Amino acid sequence: MQFTSFLENGHLTVALTGEIDHHRAKDFIQGILGKIEAYTPEICVLDFSEVTFVDSSGIAVVINALRSMAQIEGKLILSGLCPQPMRVFKASGIDKLVEIKEAAS
Amino acid sequence: MKFDNFMILEFPSKSSNEAFARSAVACFAAQLDPTLEELGDIRTAVSEAVTNCIVHAYPNELGIITLRCRILKDHVLDIVVKDRGAGISDTEQARRPMFTTGGAERSGMGFTIMESFMTTFELTSEPGKGTTVHMRRKLQRRK
Questions:
Q1: To which H or E segment does residue A48 belong?
Q2: Which domains does chain A show, CATH number per domain?
Q3: Which of B37, B41, B44, B58 to mutate to test the interface with A (most CBs of A within 10 A)?
Q4: Class at the top of the CATH hierarchy for domain B3-138
């Protein structure tokens, strides 16, 4: 799985790339879980700026990350969402469960 | 002829075909000059329908998925996704938001997204025979 991450002052940023569908969801879920378990950050930021497509599998990716962060009493933030992923997250109501940082324009 | 153009695709229920299916429909829809948002909605809905076939219709086997697209009058894109797999015994329950039999890797939002992103949505299914999703999206005519 080609995604990069970095840790700064207890804040873990995981940069996701490409299209998140059912075919790739398992790799994303396990990859993010692995990073969270390794670093136990206070805040985990999922950076979507290089994500070009998301379907409902992406919702499962976010929910799994949310669950992992809740277990260590941390906070999950989504950032850099393009319009298409944003529409999927809004249609599913996930924007009410997790903080979404609007992309800098 | 009631429609201006059509295409039919058949492919096995491999998850690598999810990206193929939504891209193929997006390419076909391009002749209607859709906006980026319309194209995104169509790709998402097709991805959901095809994923359902792969995960639920043929859980332990490879089966055939048939995808048919037509361009109807008045800038309407008509999409049918059909399988001959397991079928759904309770379609009301399946359509409920957050309901899934797919475990932690699924969100149960597939039908909700298809319904909200498309203009019309119809689900017919018979256990043991298969499932058909029929959806339409009316596209804006750009000036």
A1: strand A43-54
A2: 12-101 (3.30.750.24)
A3: B44
A4: alpha beta
